[in-house]
Design a protein that fits this description.
Largest sheet: none
Helix content: over 70%
Strand content: under 5%
CATH topology: Tetracycline Repressor, domain 2
Radius of gyration: 17 Å
Structural class: mainly alpha
Number of strands: 0
Shape: elongated
Number of helices: 9
CATH class: Mainly Alpha
Order of helices and strands: HHHHHHHHH
CATH architecture: Orthogonal Bundle
Distance between the termini: 53 Å
Number of domains: 1
């Protein structure tokens, strides 16, 4: 297919990138929503969500590096597709946090700060731009490090100081 023919369907290169990215993000986001809907305790759901994000990005980076590079570049530029994806990801995390509020699993003083803590602490493992730099690190080592960070996040959330 020629470049001219592609632009009959997509008004710009960014529109094409967004469509390609959306095709592989839809099942990931549906999976995150399923995790949020699960009957598991909030701690378990949050851990599964973090690992699901990491594994999905890692899998895409390994099996389809060109598409992953397109999306991570779009994310670095703050493209609409990345902002929408982050918004959906954050909404699922927020929902799990609210479910695990006092009397349940978590005891954050400020749920907004708790979400920021999760995103900051897990950044290296759940941000496609950061993950792009770590694709050469063996998966098992990153997942071990991510497990330690996740435990640290949970201790902080349970402390009531966040």
């Amino acid at each position: 297919m020629s470049h001219a023919n592609i632009y009959r369907y997509y008004p710009s290169k960014m529109a094409l990138i967004e469509e390609i990215s959306a095709q592989w993000l839809k099942p990931l986001e549906a999976g995150l929503h399923e995790i949020g809907d699960a009957p598991d305790p909030a701690f378990d759901k949050l851990e599964r969500l973090i690992f699901a994000l990491h594994r999905a990005y890692r899998d895409k980076g390994e099996t389809d590096p060109a598409i992953f590079a397109l999306f991570s570049t779009a994310a670095a530029r703050g493209a609409n597709i990345a902002r929408r994806h982050y918004s959906r990801r954050d909404a699922e995390m927020r929902r799990i946090l609210e479910e695990g509020m006092p009397g349940h699993s978590f005891d954050p003083a400020d749920p907004k700060r708790a979400l920021v803590l999760i995103l900051d602490a897990a950044y290296r493992f759940i941000d496609p731009v950061a993950m792009k730099m770590d694709l050469e690190i063996p998966r098992q080592f990153l997942e071990q490090r991510m497990a330690r960070i996740t435990k640290t996040i949970f201790r902080a959330l349970n402390s009531g100081r966040i």
